[in-house]
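dude i think i finally got it to work??
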Amino acid sequence: MSYIRNTSRYLVIELMLAVLSGIIMFGFTQVVSAEERGSGRHEVMDSRHGHNHAYPVRGQYFERLPSGYRAVLSGHSRYYFYGGVWYRPYGPRFVVVAPPFGLVVPLLPLYYTTLWVGGVPYYYANEVYYTQTAGGYMVAEPPKGEVAQAPPTTAGQLFVYPRKGQSEKQQAKDRYECHSWAVSQIGYDPTQPTSSVPEAQTNQKRADYQRAMGACLDARGYTAK
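look at this
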C-alpha cells in the first residue's frame, strides 16, 4: 500500500511539473510571437534637426495597420502611411520601410520639423524629407545645401513681406512653387552645391534667380526687395 501511495504521489508531482512546464513554454512562445510581429514597443528616437519623436524601427512587422492610414501607389507597389511611418505589405502582415523618393501624400504627419534650404521649405519626420507639390507633399531626397530651422526673412537677398496677410503655410507653399519656377527658368538651384561652377557665373545665376523669385512672389501678393 505504501508503495502504491508513493507511486501515486510521484505521478501527481510529475503531472503538475508537466503542466507548469507547458504554461511556461506557452508564455515564452507568446512573447516570441509578439516580438516577431512587432508589438509597437521597438521604437527609435529620431533626434535629427531637433525633431525628437519616436518611431517604430524599420523592418519591424505588424499584424494590422493603424486606423486612419493613407494608401499610396508607386507603380505596381502599394505603400501605407500613418503618423510619419511608412508600411508595405509582406504576406499577411505589414513591414515598416523607408519610402522611395517621389511618393506623394496629401497631408504631413502630425509631428514634423520645418527646415529651410536656400529659402525653400522642407518638412522632416522619421528620417524622411518632404517638399510641397501639387496634391500634397512629396518624399524628397535629403537637401544638400545649408539647412536652417528658423524661417528665413530673405530668399537669397530678397526681403519678402506678405501683402495679403498670407498664412505661414501659404507663404511656404508660394515660396516653394516660386522657387521651382525660378529654377526651371534660370537653370540654377541655390539648394544644390555649385563647387564646379566658376564664381562669376554662379553670382550671375544667383542674381537672375533672385529676380525671377521676386517677380513670381510679387505676382502672388508679396513685396520682394
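The chain has two domains: 43-140, 153-224.
im so relieved honestly
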